[in-house]
Design a protein that fits this description.
It is a single chain. It contains five helices and six strands, in the order βαβαβαβαβαβ. It has helices at 19-28, 46-57, 71-81, 121-127, 144-154; strands at residues 3-7, 32-34, 64-69, 91-95, 131-136, 157-161. By secondary structure, the protein is an alpha/beta fold. The mean pLDDT is 96.
């Protein structure tokens, strides 16, 4: 069974931006879809987000694709770090993702609890064989080096969007075709 779960980011919600459009597009491809509302989006806690994601997923399998936006990306990576040796998923799409704490001017460390330990890249890759990384060249929050960190450490394919800022509904992004370009989606 093909299924996909889409995670929103910090201050996000499940039916915002391109997520409803992508849900419809993936359902057309035969995916069973879920877009959970993550807890405490204004003051996110990594353990609470991981607990929610674990509950939503249930038993991971190779028919599962995880798609994250912003904070949803590091949540997916932290989830994959913790899987048992025999657990694998089919792939992950990371949109506006980052794997280190942010540094933009209005940020005051609210996400630091997601970065208290180093990212365990080998553990992550052992549980997910394919990654598709999407960033925008004018994102005011997630700098371009984050794209390179993800691509290099995950042996991933990457794609750059142009002039889409943080790729949220607030930025006017209500469709994101490049997610569907991931080789493991179709």
């Amino acid at each position: 069974m093909k299924r996909a779960i889409i995670l929103h980011g910090w201050y996000g919600y499940s039916d915002e931006g391109w997520r409803p459009w992508l849900k419809t597009e993936l359902e057309k491809l035969g995916y069973q879809m879920m877009i959970p509302q993550m807890p405490d989006t204004e003051k996110p806690n990594m353990e609470a987000w991981l607990t929610k994601l674990t509950e939503v997923i249930g038993d991971p399998d190779e028919g599962l694709v995880l798609i994250g936006h912003s904070l949803g990306c590091i949540t997916i990576l932290r989830y994959l770090e913790r899987l048992q040796d025999d657990q694998k998923i089919g792939g992950a799409v990371l949109v506006a993702g980052f794997a280190k704490d942010l540094t933009f001017s209005d940020y005051h460390g609210e996400l630091a609890n997601f970065f208290q330990t180093p990212v365990l890249w080998d553990n992550i890759k052992a549980h997910c064989p394919k990654f598709w990384i999407i960033n925008s060249d004018d994102d005011p929050y997630v700098t371009g080096d984050n794209h390179e960190i993800l691509v290099q450490n995950l042996n991933a394919s990457g794609h750059w969007e142009h002039d889409k800022k943080h790729m949220s509904g607030d930025d006017g992004v209500f469709e994101l075709d490049s997610v569907l370009d991931a080789e493991f989606i179709n």
